[in-house]
C-alpha cells in the first residue's frame, strides 16, 4: 500500500482556482480542501462538498430560544406573579400571548445567533490554544490554495494539470 502525498496548488485568482477544480474533478481527482481569504461562491459543488445541515441547526437553536421565552413569560407573568396590567386578564396564557411576542422574537434571534456563532467556532476549530490548520499563511491575505491528496504515481499528472490551470505555485508535501 503506497503512502499518499499532499499537493498544494496556489492560485492568484479565484476564477482560475474554480477552473482548475473543474478540470481536476472531471479527471476524477478528489480535491480535499480549498483555502481562501474570503468565501468563494459556488466552490462547494465544484469540489464535491455536500450541502450542510447548518440551517437545521439554526432552526433548532431558534426553537430552543422560542420555547425558553414562552416558558419564561408563562412562569413569570401567569404562574408565579400574575399582575393585572391595564385590565388584561392574567389567568390564561393565550389571552396574553400578543404581549409576549416581542420577548419571544428577541429570545429566538438571540439563541439562534449565539448558537450559530458557537457552532461556527466549534466546527472551524477556532478555539483558544489551538494551532491553525491553514497550510499556507498567504491564504489569509491574497492567495487561494487547493489541497489534493494523491498517490505518488499521479503526482506529475496532477502537477501538470494544476500548472495548466493557472496555478502560481505547486508544492508537494
CATH topology annotation of the largest domain = Alpha-Beta Plaits
Number of helices: 5
CATH domain class name of the largest domain: Alpha Beta
CATH architecture field of the largest domain? 2-Layer Sandwich
The string of secondary-structure elements, in order, is: EHEHHHEHE
Strand order of the largest sheet: 2-3-1-4
Alpha-carbon distance between the two ends: 18 Å
The description of the largest β-sheet is:
4 strands, antiparallel
Task: Tell me how many strands there are.
Answer: 4
Keywords:
single chain; 173 residues; alpha+beta; Alpha-Beta Plaits; 2 domains; four-stranded antiparallel beta sheet; rod-shaped
Description:
The protein is an alpha+beta fold. The chain has two domains: 5-51 and 133-172, 2-Layer Sandwich (Alpha-Beta Plaits); 54-124. The chain is built from five helices and four strands. It has helices spanning 14-26, 43-47, 54-80, 93-124, 155-165, and strands at 5-11, 31-35, 144-150, 169-172. 16% of the residues are buried. The model has no long low-confidence stretch (mean pLDDT 90).
Structure in a nutshell:
51% of the residues lie in helices and 13% in strands. It has 173 residues and is α+β, with helices and mostly antiparallel strands.
Topology (SSEs and partners):
Layout: E1 5-11, H1 14-26, E2 31-35, H2 43-47, H3 54-80, H4 93-124, E3 144-150, H5 155-165, E4 169-172
Antiparallel strand pairs: 1-3, 1-4, 2-3
Helix pairs in contact: 1-5, 3-4
Amino acid at each position: 500500500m503506497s503512502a499518499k502525498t499532499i499537493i498544494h496548488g496556489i492560485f492568484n485568482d479565484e476564477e482560475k482556482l474554480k477552473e482548475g477544480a473543474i478540470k481536476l474533478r472531471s479527471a476524477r481527482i478528489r480535491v480535499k480542501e480549498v483555502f481562501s481569504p474570503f468565501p468563494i461562491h459556488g466552490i462547494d459543488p465544484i469540489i464535491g462538498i455536500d450541502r450542510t445541515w447548518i440551517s437545521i441547526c439554526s432552526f433548532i437553536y431558534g426553537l430552543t430560544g422560542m420555547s425558553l421565552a414562552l416558558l419564561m413569560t408563562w412562569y413569570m407573568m401567569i404562574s408565579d406573579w400574575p399582575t393585572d396590567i391595564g385590565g388584561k386578564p392574567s389567568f390564561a396564557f393565550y389571552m396574553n400571548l400578543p404581549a409576549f411576542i416581542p420577548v419571544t422574537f428577541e429570545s429566538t434571534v438571540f439563541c439562534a445567533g449565539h448558537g450559530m456563532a458557537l457552532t461556527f467556532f466549534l466546527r472551524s476549530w477556532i478555539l483558544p490554544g489551538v494551532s491553525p490548520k491553514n497550510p499556507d499563511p498567504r491564504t489569509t491575505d491574497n492567495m487561494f490554495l487547493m489541497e489534493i491528496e494523491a498517490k505518488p504515481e499521479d503526482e506529475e499528472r496532477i502537477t501538470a494539470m494544476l500548472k495548466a490551470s493557472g496555478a502560481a505555485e505547486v508544492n508537494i508535501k
